[in-house]
TrEMBL record:
This is O-acetyl-ADP-ribose deacetylase (Regulator of RNase III). It comes from the Bacteria. InterPro entries: Macro_dom (IPR002589), Macro_dom-like (IPR043472). Residues 1-176 form the Macro domain. SMART domains: A1pp (SM00506). It comes from Chitinophaga polysaccharea. SUPFAM superfamilies: Macro domain-like. The lineage of its organism: Bacteria, Pseudomonadati, Bacteroidota, Chitinophagia, Chitinophagales. Gene3D superfamilies: Leucine Aminopeptidase, subunit E, domain 1.
């Protein structure tokens, strides 16, 4: 019953206590705007130092992939940085790349024995991914992963705005949670 492991909240992901929170990062991993900037500001220099080490080792992070760092001063234990796709009309593999963000983040959480993970609405801000489509991709990818892996105990979807919250809850209620 994977759907029971999913919780949807409206809020600020930097305030979430979890084993890992996911950062909607850019490929440089060196901070930016939106969720990325908020996480770097709230977490402090330890996150940036870890990101710089990853950049030195592998040159950053490609779209759809994910890397893990410390969480610095955040209430979470780790930050999983994933690079979401910029929406270009849907003809540039954006759907698959966004699903990969969620799947690779969950795989990293499993590999590091993390039981709880919190996601923002990846790519729905300045990357302009359609919010309704993004909610369905996120939910389907998460449910599929949870059905195949029992190690993740809770996935928290942290919606920053009302529109993302509405689409996420709507998709969950209509397509994921069975009528009880």
């Amino acid at each position: 019953m994977a759907y029971r492991k999913i919780r949807i909240v409206k809020g600020d992901i930097t305030k979430i206590k979890a084993d890992a929170i996911v950062n909607a990062a850019n490929s440089s991993l060196l901070g930016g705007g939106g969720v990325d900037g908020a996480i770097h500001r709230a977490g402090g220099p330890d996150i940036l130092n870890d990101c710089r080490a990853i950049v030195a080792r592998q040159g950053g992070c490609k779209t759809g992939n994910a890397v893990i760092t410390t969480a610095g001063r955040l209430p979470a234990k780790h930050v999983i940085h994933t690079v979401g796709p910029v929406w270009n009309g849907g003809d540039k593999n954006e759907v698959t790349l966004l699903a990969n963000c969620y799947r690779h983040s969950l795989e990293l959480a499993s590999r590091h024995h993390l039981a709880t993970i919190a996601f923002p609405n990846i790519s729905t801000g300045i990357y302009h991914f359609p919010k309704e489509l993004a909610a369905s991709i996120a939910m389907n990818t998460i449910v599929t992963y949870l059905e195949e892996h029992s190690d993740i105990e809770e996935v928290i979807l942290v919606c920053y705005d009302d529109e993302n919250l509405r689409y996420t809850e709507q998709y969950y209620n209509q397509h994921i949670r069975p009528e009880e």
